[in-house]
Structure formats: structure tokens, C-alpha cells
């Protein structure tokens, strides 16, 4: 649509003068993962991104699920281009970035993710420069990864500034969430995690679920896992998925929408207290693809 194309051109062009300036802060890179599928990870990521944006933050959402990319489906948005077209230089960043609800910029998933690991130095530099056109002006970049712990997801987790793990009170989800942290911890003990309990019956069930994982991580891995919050089991979420509309927009007064607002606020409060320096998108990409600057 012309309206979207014009908005995207303005989004990209408005950042070009800023590229010559050094920002005091860089975008914080957030990877969202889960030990297993079916826990509502992608739905959480989408609504978390929209909630951060509604709070005045500049957010870019990146669907990094190689096999089961579905962020565009959850938004009811049809996408013509994805990462593959950028890698093949068949489209530039302006064309592959789409605008979702409330003007949320996102990059659709699909084929092409595996080709990132075999880029030539020239192609890597082009890819990084294109992403930086948008990313350098963002506060947060969210990567929605595939369920489980593939080698690609491992790279996202170990390269990001923050890693959010989504689970549910279901025993298999709890076990798999802990297993994911355990495997990462074996090789990368410096990586920390923030836990989200989705589809909780109530606050007590969420707290019990969180305690099980955090206590096991502390006892057996000597790892301090932060509990970020929970999202209640809510029929409005299912209705929103069927409508292909994010539940935080379709039902802003629902319990789930209020929960994710509280959770996002908690994350921002924690982030504001941090004094650690973020690496920015260029540092992330080079670390992610195991290249040095």
C-alpha cells in the first residue's frame, strides 16, 4: 500500500542524519525463547513489543523463527519480502521492513536465516549496514526465536543483551525451560535469563512455577534467574489469535493485556537501573555470526 510505503520511507530517511552522530545509548537486543513449542512465545513477543511501543519506546520486531515464522500471521499482515530478499540484495531494508498494528516495524521470518552463517565479508557488511539504518535509532530490538534450543537459537541467546524465557505451568514446559538454561549454562555460564510464566491460572500458580525453575537453577547451576512476571490464562487471547489481532490491542482491558503491561513496566524498571553498556546492532551481528569487527 502507498500509505505503508510512504511511512517506511519516512522511517528510514528520518534516521539517516543521525547515522553521522554518535548516540549516547544503543538499542538493547532482546532474544525471546522457550524450551518447547506451544507456550505462546510468539504471541508474548508481539504483544510485549507493542506494549513497549505504547510506552513510548522505539521497537523493532524481528521474526527469527526459521521453521515456524508466524508473527505476520498473528498480526494479520501479508508480507511480500523477508530477510531472504535482503540477503540476495533483491530488496533493501526499506522494502523488507513492514508496519504492523500501531505502526510497529517488523521484519518477517522465513527462508534465508541459515544463509546468514555463510555470508562473504562484503555481504555481511552490506547486511549490517542495512539493518543499522533502522536499528541505530531503536531503543529495543526483539528477536522471536524458534522453540527449543537449535544451534541458531543458541547463537541468538549468547549474542543478545537480554534473554527472556517463556514457559507455562505445564510440567513439560517447566522441564524444557530449565533444560534450555542448563545447556546454555554449560558453555556460556555468564549468560543470564529472565523468566516469564504464560497461561498461568493465577498469581500463585505463576509464582510456584517460577520458584521451581529458579530454585533448580540456583541449586544445580549456581545461576540467578530473574522472574519478570506472568500472563494469566485468558480466553480473550484465544479470541484475538482467531481474529489475527494482538490481544493487547483487541482487548486492552483484558486480564492478559493488563498483565503484559505490568510485565513490560517491570522490564523497563529493571533496564533503567542497569549500568551495563549495550553492544548495539553491529556488535550483536558480528558476535552472532562469530565474526570480529
From TrEMBL:
Alphabetical list of Pfam families matching this protein: AAA_31 (PF13614)
Give UniProt keywords alphabetically.
ATP-binding, Nucleotide-binding
Return the CDD domains for the record: FlhG-like
Residue ranges occupied by any AAA domain in the UniProt entry: 28-190
Coiled-coil ranges (or none): none
Name the domain of life.
Bacteria
Q: Which SUPFAM superfamilies match?
A: P-loop containing nucleoside triphosphate hydrolases
Q: Identify this protein by name.
A: Flagellum site-determining protein YlxH
Encoding gene, per UniProt annotation:
ylxH
Amino acid at each position: 500500500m502507498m500509505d505503508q510505503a510512504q511511512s517506511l520511507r519516512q522511517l528510514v530517511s528520518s534516521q539517516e542524519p543521525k547515522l553521522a552522530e554518535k548516540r549516547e545509548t544503543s538499542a538493547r537486543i532482546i532474544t525471546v525463547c522457550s524450551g518447547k513449542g506451544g507456550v505462546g512465545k510468539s504471541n508474548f513477543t508481539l504483544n510485549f513489543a507493542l506494549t513497549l511501543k505504547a510506552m513510548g519506546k522505539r521497537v523493532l520486531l524481528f521474526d527469527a523463527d526459521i521453521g515456524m515464522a508466524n508473527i505476520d500471521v498473528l498480526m494479520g499482515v501479508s508480507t511480500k519480502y523477508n530477510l531472504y530478499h535482503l540477503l540476495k540484495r533483491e530488496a533493501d531494508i526499506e522494502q523488507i521492513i513492514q508496519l504492523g498494528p500501531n505502526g510497529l516495524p517488523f521484519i518477517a521470518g522465513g527462508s534465508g536465516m541459515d544463509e546468514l552463517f555463510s555470508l562473504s565479508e562484503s555481504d555481511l557488511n552490506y547486511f549490517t549496514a542495512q539493518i543499522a539504518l533502522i536499528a541505530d535509532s531503536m531503543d529495543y530490538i526483539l528477536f522471536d526465536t524458534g522453540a527449543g534450543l537449535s544451534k541458531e537459537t543458541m547463537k541468538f541467546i549468547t549474542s543478545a543483551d537480554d534473554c527472556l524465557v517463556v514457559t507455562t505451568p505445564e510440567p513439560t514446559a517447566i522441564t524444557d525451560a530449565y533444560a534450555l538454561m542448563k545447556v546454555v549454562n554449560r558453555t556460556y555460564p555468564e549468560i543470564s535469563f529472565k523468566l516469564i510464566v504464560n497461561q498461568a491460572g493465577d498469581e500463585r500458580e505463576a509464582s510456584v512455577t517460577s520458584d521451581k525453575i529458579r530454585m533448580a537453577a540456583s541449586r544445580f547451576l549456581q545461576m540467578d534467574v530473574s522472574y519478570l512476571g506472568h500472563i494469566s490464562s485468558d480466553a480473550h487471547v484465544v479470541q484475538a489469535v482467531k481474529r489475527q489481532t494482538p490481544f493487547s490491542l483487541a482487548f486492552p482491558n483484558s486480564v492478559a493485556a493488563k498483565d503484559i503491561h505490568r510485565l513490560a513496566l517491570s522490564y523497563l524498571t529493571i533496564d533503567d537501573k542497569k549500568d551495563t553498556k549495550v553492544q548495539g546492532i553491529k556488535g550483536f551481528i558480528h558476535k552472532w555470526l562469530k565474526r570480529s569487527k
